[in-house]
Amino acid sequence: MNNLAIIPARSGSKGLKDKNIKLLNGKPLMAYSIDAAKKSGIYSHILVSTDSEKYKIIAEKCGAEVPFYRSEENSSDIASSWDVVSEVLKKYKQLGVEFDTFTLLQPTSPLRDDQDIKKAYHLLYEKKAIGVVSVCEMEHSPLWSNVLPEDGSLEGFLDFSSNKQRQKLQKFYRVNGAIYMAKVKEFLENQNLYRSKCYAYKMTTEKSIDIDTALDFKIAEIILRG
């Protein structure tokens, strides 16, 4: 199979400046995703999608390829990940290269490793799926949450029929942002990965950290140091 790993790493992050190349325990953040993709052994191409020459140089030193830059249109903070994926697939096709599957590996998930990627890939074919998305169990049940009115009143805040002990509540899961894997043909027909023949790959909460703030970065450092 011709499989593509896409690591989106635009410059200009507002929350944490240059987070995609910020050193995490001595390695650029994006390097963790590049290394995981390489070690998984399932990709013919590992691409970093970026708008920055500086990022391109770092990505290539880490073992990824950057045969083209991301367009200005898809370098804004309002461009979706699927816009980026579609652009990458289109540009590769123009170069005469087409793929059976792609995996979007966000660099902000450095604790997702090669074993997670391989297990997600096996799930894709075991289930004869068209897509696999990684999830983790929610830290707190949404049944214990609600919106608040302006006066802060708690009247009707909880539904007593679902107000049970934590251990007795149904498990809820959330998308953790670490792995988005899909068959290219079906993705180009319908970019919705939350439909029939798409399945969840479960990850632990510890490995599901998604770096968006300086605090997230520090937590990832602590976990990586063991």
Task: Give your account of this protein's structure.
The protein contains 6 helices and 8 strands. The protein is of the alpha/beta class and 226 residues long. The longest helix is centred in the middle third of the chain and has 14 residues. The chain is globular, with a radius of gyration of 19 Å. The chain starts with a strand and ends with a helix.
What descriptive keywords fit this protein?
226 residues, alpha/beta, 6-stranded mixed sheet, 8 strands, 29% helix, globular
Helix and strand composition category: alpha/beta
**DSSP strand tally:** 8
Q: How are the strands ordered across the major sheet?
A: 4-1-5-7-6-8
The biggest beta sheet reads: 6 strands, mixed
| Strand composition percent | 15-25%
Number of helices: 6
Task: Lay out the secondary structure.
Blueprint: E1 3-8, E2 23-24, E3 27-28, H1 29-40, E4 45-49, H2 53-61, H3 81-94, E5 101-104, H4 114-126, E6 131-137, E7 173-183, H5 184-189, E8 198-203, H6 214-224
Parallel strand pairs: 1-4, 1-5, 6-8
Antiparallel strand pairs: 2-3, 5-7, 6-7
Helix pairs in contact: 1-4
